[in-house]
Design a protein that fits this description.
Strand content: under 5%
Mean pLDDT: 89
Low-confidence stretches: 1-29, 31-46
Number of helices: 12
Structural class: mainly alpha
Shape: globular
Number of domains: 2
Number of strands: 4
Distance between the termini: 24 Å
CATH superfamily of the largest domain: Cytochrome c-like domain
Strand order of the largest sheet: 1-2
CATH class of the largest domain: Mainly Alpha
CATH topology of the largest domain: Cytochrome Bc1 Complex, Chain D, domain 2
CATH architecture of the largest domain: Orthogonal Bundle
Radius of gyration: 21 Å
Amino acid sequence: MIRLIHRHSTSQQSRGPGRRTWCAVAVAGLALSVAGTFRHVAAEDAAAPVVVIQVPVGLGKLIEPEDNVATAEKIALGKQLYFDKRLSGDNTVSCASCHDPAKGFSNGAQFATGVGGHLGGRNSPTVINAAYQRFQFWDGRAGTLEEQALGPIENPIEMNMKLDDVVAKLNGIEGYRTQFQQIFGTDVTKDGIAKAIAAYERTILSGDAPYDHYKAGDKQAMSEAAVRGMELFFGKAHCSACHSGANFTDNAFHNIGVGEESDKGRATISGLGGDTGAFKTPTLREIARTAPYMHDGSIKTLEEVVQHYNKGGNVNDYLDEEVYELGLTEQEVKDLVTFMKEGLASKSYPDHKPPKLPE
């Protein structure tokens, strides 16, 4: 059920029922409410009610670009595009194929599988709380969700379709063309596709976890093992050196001793030798859902992840100074895993279902 409080403009009523129909179908399940005049509204959105995305307990303030303020209609359109395989060259792959809500908005496999069964060289990072990430992709080559959204479409081993061809295809679908006209005032454009998908992805949020309630004073929110694991996380196990803040990431890049020989990571973007083998710190929210782990999907379980850090990673010339032998006991390893599995999993997980797609 959507909870929306519309503050209509004078032109809102003239937009027709089709817009509301698509919105209701595609946004069902998202918790949204409408804001007043709390920020600048881009000209393209001036006639639509601005929407405040309801942020779960435990997360910080959600910042949106001034030129892509959320509206219910834009989010609905973005959700359709996210789940639509017609954005790929052979109509077999969508964003959701590699970032599946049923698999922690990842894909449950070591690598992403694109058109024609082509395998990528990296694990699919979760989209959960990507709105809070300072950088997108494992190597941080995109700075915003809008920048990120179009990359996989043209990538030959992912969706393998030229953006001009995607635009032409979607303009041939009346349901899409109508929505773009209503939302952006134009036919389908590359910019509109990016903005709509990004607007939807900003609704993929997870907080409201047992850890958040424990931190707020509910001492029954976590089991004794999870509490012990939490104390290790912020203490002896040294996890919070990188997995810090409300989203459990420092938004930085680290060489943790995984796959640095075959993938140079952030160094390919920054050109700095010190970034060799360094990859973005992922969020740990819903981490139990997003196996396998690491940028190359080489570690299958959280238990193995903890043991990797416990031994000090794999020594190399660029290993981060925060990675060293921890001396955790077997019970401490179990408690730490319990904290991540139990304490950071939300009962209000954003289990989004595919919407009806335009024809």
